[in-house]
Specification:
CATH superfamily: Winged helix-like DNA-binding domain superfamily/Winged helix DNA-binding domain
CATH architecture: Orthogonal Bundle
CATH class: Mainly Alpha
CATH topology: Arc Repressor Mutant, subunit A
Structural class: alpha+beta
Distance between the termini: 36 Å
Number of domains: 1
C-alpha cells in the first residue's frame, strides 16, 4: 500500500464516508460528503491505485438501473485512514488551541 501524496479536505471527507460504511457506491459518497462527483471519483481512483480502497461492480440482477461500482476500504486502508484522519483532527485541534 502506498502513502498518499496529499490529504486534502475532500480526501478526508471521502475517507470519513468510507470509514462510516461498509461497501458503498460512489454516488452515495458524493451525496454523503456534499462534494462534487468530479472531485469524489478521482479521489476514489487515487485511493484504489494506492491500495487503500478496493472496488467491484455490483452484481444484483433484481435491481433496475445501471450497475453501481462499490467501494470499500482495504484492511490496511482502513487502518491508514483512521491514522491519517486522527492526525488531521489532532493538528486541527492544535491550531484551534493556539488561535
Amino acid at each position: 500500500m502506498d502513502a498518499l501524496s496529499r490529504m486534502t479536505p475532500a480526501t478526508a471527507d471521502v475517507l470519513d464516508a468510507l470509514l462510516s460504511s461498509g461497501s458503498v457506491w460512489g454516488l452515495r459518497i458524493v451525496k454523503t460528503t456534499g462534494r462534487p462527483a468530479g472531485s469524489v471519483y478521482p479521489i476514489l481512483e487515487r485511493l484504489e491505485r494506492a491500495g487503500w480502497v478496493a472496488s467491484v461492480w455490483e452484481d444484483d440482477p433484481a435491481r433496475s438501473g445501471p450497475r453501481r461500482r462499490l467501494y470499500e476500504l482495504t484492511t490496511d486502508g482502513r487502518a491508514a485512514a483512521q491514522a491519517s484522519l486522527g492526525r488531521l483532527r489532532s493538528s486541527a485541534t492544535g491550531r484551534e488551541a493556539t488561535a
